[in-house]
Amino acid sequence: MSTVPAFSVFSAVSELFVTAGVLYVIRRNWTRRRFALPIFLGVALFEALVNVLYMAHRASEAAAPGAAHAIAPGMRLAFALHGMLSLLAYLVFVLLGVFAWQDQRAGRFFFRDRPALTWTFLAVWTVSIVSGETLFVVRYLV
Amino acid sequence: MIPARARRLRAPLLLALALLLAVETVGGLTLFFARVAFGRSPGEALHVLGGALLTGVYAVYQAAHWRRVTPLRARLDYALGLLAAGSMALTLATGWLLALPWWRTRIVAHGAGPVPYAATESAVHNIGGMLVLTFALSHLGAVLFRDRAARGRTRADDEAPAGTPAGAE
């Protein structure tokens, strides 16, 4: 078992809180309540400046010439897929959040009015989070 | 969409910017994935060249855009536009920093091996690119949403009986 970097533990745990924030924002919109703008901004900023940046940094380290032989090829592929999915999930979350906030100001509920889009986004987000947590466990705890 | 906006969205400079952004996005994502998964950098030279072109085209576009929309207003579309511009500046700046070791390795030393990119600059460049897409698309969405809302208000005003404010009962 490898030594677990402290920031990896922080990132793995905080990712669960971020997910709770994402679900809270969508749940409020779904139940036709006021858009939780402070929570949305907090989650969006924290995710970009801490978790996604950390993921990008780890991915860059994994791609460095010296690290090529230190990480198994399957793990590298999983890192790359998780990285791409994380970037996509974040981008879509911010976009949908902005649209939801604007719709709310016009008296509409973006997520409630688009169940297929909402559930698809939640599925993508879930895969992104679960893959990140799985990578953490496989890399450091197994 | 209002006619002036439709015309601006078809302007050659904006189309060139959109095309370069699309090329750089696809190239950047390909590089990110291939470097991490396989330790390869397909299309690296094209990405550097595209980034250099993008810097020039974006600088011209942003200067003209700012002249048109200034002064700054406390509105969502302005805030998102500022965030998009900041992300773009960050991405282009780190892109130029990353181009330095590429230039030394590929052009000066004619090396074919992996370029020693700094992990932090690379990470900031990757996330910056993603933020550009996020905020530029959100900015465009916010502007188009504002157009739609304004059109809705105009239609309501047109349909209201004379002397009755739209929405009044």
What's the N-to-C terminus distance of chain A? 6 Å
Low-confidence stretches of chain A: none
| Residue fraction in strands of chain B | under 5%
**N- and C-termini, Cα separation of chain B:** 29 Å
Q: Structural class, judged by helices and strands of chain B?
A: mainly alpha
* Helical residues, percent of chain B: over 70%
Order of helical and strand elements of chain B: HHHHH
Please provide the count of β strands of chain A: 0
How many DSSP-defined strands of chain B?
A: 0
Shape of chain A from CA axes?
A: elongated
Order of helices and strands of chain A: HHHHH
Helix run count of chain A: 5
Describe the main β-sheet of chain B briefly: none
Radius of gyration of chain A equals 17 Å
What number is the mean pLDDT of chain A?
Answer: 88
SS field, number of helical segments of chain B: 5
Beta-strand content of chain A: under 5%
Largest interface: A-B, 30 and 33 residues
- The proportion of residues forming helix of chain A, as a percent range, comes to over 70%
Task: Provide keyphrases for this structure.
heterodimer; A: 82% helix; 0% strand; B: 169 residues; mainly alpha; 79% helix; disordered C terminus
Description of the structure:
The complex is a heterodimer of chains A (142) and B (169). By secondary structure, chain A is mainly α. Chain A has helices spanning 6-30, 37-63, 73-105, 110-113, 115-141. In chain A, helix 1 runs antiparallel to helix 2 (37-63) and helix 3 (73-105) runs antiparallel to helix 5 (115-141). The N and C termini of chain A lie close together (6 Å). The mean pLDDT of chain A is 88. With 169 residues, chain B is mainly alpha-helical. Chain B is 79% helix and 0% strand. The chains are: A mainly alpha (142), B mainly alpha (169). The A-B interface holds A 48, 52-53, 56-57, 59-65, 68, 76-77, 79-81, 83-84, 87, 90-91, 94-95, 98-99, 101-102, 106 and B 29, 32-39, 76, 80, 113-114, 116-117, 119-120, 122-124, 126-127, 130-131, 133-135, 137-138, 141-142, 145, 149.
